[in-house]
Amino acid sequence: MKILLLNGTIVGTKTKTLLIEIEKYIKKLQENYDTKLINLEDYELQFVDGRPFDQYNEDMKYLIEEMEQADAYVISTPIFQGSIPGTLKNLFDAVSPLAMRHKPVSIVANGGTLQHHLVIENQLKPILNYFRCLVTPNYVYTHTNHFSTQGELIDEDVHNRLNEMTRVFHQYIQMSKDI
């Protein structure tokens, strides 16, 4: 079972830190999952404009293939200006609507205000529902105060919520095997 840990931004470190923590919790599970961390900052992204797949650069082709071949996802995103980053939306635009169908997805996000968690409800979940993903109900939203000045996750409650989200994500993966 291939789990894609997707950092949906090209700036900052907090969302990557969250994925690294989640990967630790996944590795503690009884299952032997194959996790892959993808940071969009490591790739030369192109705007999705409707051209055929083979006309995109190698990085875009790779990202699309990784998205479409994964069995489950943990998507990590910052919230910028009350929205998800364009880089993440651009990648969603490149993926076939059938590629993520019935696949488990958990969400973690970080924002500068406590109210930005609503972006998950009003933007990210509708996109994932369009793909007909199995979205876990307990996403984890973090705030700048949950991190040290060096970018380390220091909030014990967030660690507990990430652990619980991983447990539920695991259950969704088990359920998806029957679909």
TrEMBL record:
Domain NADPH-dependent FMN reductase-like: 1-143
Keyword Flavoprotein part of the UniProt annotation: yes
SUPFAM superfamilies in the cross-refs: Flavoproteins (SSF52218)
InterPro entries xref list: Flavoprotein-like_sf, FMN_Rdtase-like_dom, NAD(P)H-dep_FMN_reductase
Gene Ontology MF terms: oxidoreductase activity
Pfam family, one: FMN_red
Alphabetical keyword list: Flavoprotein, FMN, Oxidoreductase
PANTHER family from the UniProt entry: FMN REDUCTASE (NADPH)
Name used for this protein in its record: NADPH-dependent FMN reductase-like domain-containing protein
Organism the protein comes from: Halobacillus andaensis
Upper lineage: Bacteria, Bacillati, Bacillota, Bacilli, Bacillales
